Amino acid sequence: MKFKYFTTTALFLSLFLSSCNSENRQQKQLNIAEESWPNLEQAAKGTTVQMMMWQGDPLINKYMEDYVKPKLRALYNITLDISSGQGKDIVGFALAEKETGKKTSEIDVIWINGETFYQLRQLDALYGPFTERLPNNQLVNWQSSFIARDFQQPVKGMEAPWGNVQLAFIYHSGKVTQPPASFNALETYIQNNPGTFTIPNEFTGMTLLKSWMIALAGKEELAGSFSAAKYTKYSQQLWQKLNRLKPYFWKQGQTFPATLAQLHQLYANGEVNFTFSNNDAEVDNKILQGVFPPESRAYVPEPGTIQNSHYLGIMKKAANVPGALVVINFLQSPEAQYQKASPAVWGDGTILAFSKLPDEWQQKFKNISARRQAPDRSKIQHRAFEELAPEYMIRLYDDFRTKVIEQN
């Protein structure tokens, strides 16, 4: 019996490895850069695509599980396998694979934006340029600087836009009848309402700090490449303000939420009156989920906040490039973009140019359920800041910890 079990297992393993080797040989035989799209779709059929993405939002997870995965299976017989990981996880994963000399990555598609894009480019860990291979690329609004540049870095085909959002303040209208209209007014609010405000020590919190720093410096002052001198000048002003306000923060500023989910929970529990979101429409879907109280409202203070796009990349040594391309092309399709634009689904802003869409899809996007408590996109566009160069975010993470959090 033991011998029979061993031979059965060995046979299964042999067949599995043979199948994997066959897929790799098939991919090597394809000239991805020159192959026709129908041939790439054919090569992708029946394969598994490995994707790594942040999984901290139930509605985004539901969109991927209940809509994207079944669609890919029905249209292309592709199995999408998703693992959890974001910025530092993806960079760490890429670095580990590089250091161990892996010839084929365990991940194909990754969900990223500027800071991670920058770090992966430093590691030469991204496949591309590839966006010109995607049929739906012709529908992308590349005329928008918020899409064509990621943290001031030209995308140059190395990542494909997936969605576009803007940082919004979310507050409880029953407790805050007149929310601070500007960053200057925010300082007054914090001092007059001690214990009701804090900043999460993570990506959204850093986006808030960058927006605040741009408000101090002026919209164009920090544009372009990273300037250590400008960073030092304006970050010092920011740290002085925050340390002056820190005693008025939640828990007297002795501790800060480590994740946005923690801040959302503090807000939902009534411990603080404000939370934030990088997605200006999130307030509506959080109310629909019953996570936020119905009195929640969202807005963008003067002079503005950061608007940015998020992207999909392909690992340089991806095992299934044809499958990755087909998955990304589907995620950029009018159908998939329309599905996630609804506040009841995700509320993510589209990266497509409406003028390039067929009339049928233009009409569908126009008829998406109106935002309820989220700000109208057209009314906040003039308050949109472009992202800063990635070095600003990297420095802010370290300095917020050492110059604010750890200061007594």
Automatic annotation (TrEMBL):
NCBIfam families: PRK11622.1. This is ABC transporter substrate-binding protein. InterPro entries: SBP (IPR006059), YnjB (IPR027020). Pfam families: SBP_bac_1.
